[in-house]
Amino acid sequence: MKIEVLAFAQVRIDLGFAERVVECSPTETPRAILLKIAPQYILDRSVRVAVNRVYADWDQPLGDAFEMAIIPPVSGG
Amino acid sequence: MKTHIELTHHPIIPPPLPAGDREIGAQLDFLGMVREMEAGRPIPGLNYEAHEPMALSMMESILTDLALRHPCHEVWIVHRLDFVPVGETALFVRVHSQHRQAALHMMDELIDRIKKDVPIWKRLESVTNNTDCADLFDPARERCAFAIQSSRVNKEQPTRAVALPRG
Lengths: 77, 167
Known about the structure:
The complex is a heterodimer of chains A (77) and B (167).
Chain A: E1 2-7, H1 9-15, E2 19-23, H2 30-37, E3 48-51, E4 54-56, E5 67-71
Parallel strand pairs in A: 1-5
Antiparallel strand pairs in A: 1-2, 3-4, 3-5
Chain B: E1 2-8, E2 26-33, E3 37-38, E4 41-42, E5 45-50, H1 52-69, E6 74-80, E7 82-85, E8 89-97, H2 100-117, E9 120-125, E10 132-136, E11 144-149, H3 151-155
Parallel strand pairs in B: 1-6
Antiparallel strand pairs in B: 2-8, 3-4, 5-7, 5-9, 6-8, 10-11
């Protein structure tokens, strides 16, 4: 299966992309996907992940998710 | 509860006050505006970006949750994206309710939740350097990241438009 990985704000700068399609399996986790596409990236504890536009756990299997978004600390308003 | 949730790339002009609903006893308007000084230095404005579909669904979800505790007639949330000059509104929230306490609590908690959970980010644009602008996605962590061409500030002047329907 394929999943779209989105990166925003500081994470987008750090990773060097805003979106990328990645081949993965339903048992893989967001943490594993991030490690696969950016092995050197040090994941800060303040960075959250959203799967299918809902906040999720970094170690939760992706299942049939279509999107994984890497969400650094937000600062709207 | 009626909701109106919008992300706009244009200046926000609050709609006129509604007339005719005699059950509304309280109306609050909040305008979050861009300040000139950030971390002791002047800025021309802030750049906002968002995960737009997630931001919209999350604001709807937050309102559904808050409405259980603070029943209101209607809530408007309009957040502007891209470049917002100093003095202009980045966030507009309007709450209508029968009594003031529900509106006050809704407004307070809603803005806290937006700032905590809704995937929107701001980035500083500095005018202290003629060639580069320092970008700072996360002022709390003082994580100054990279330089961009200051000319982008001029290129991205927003078009004047009314984001909110009148009436």
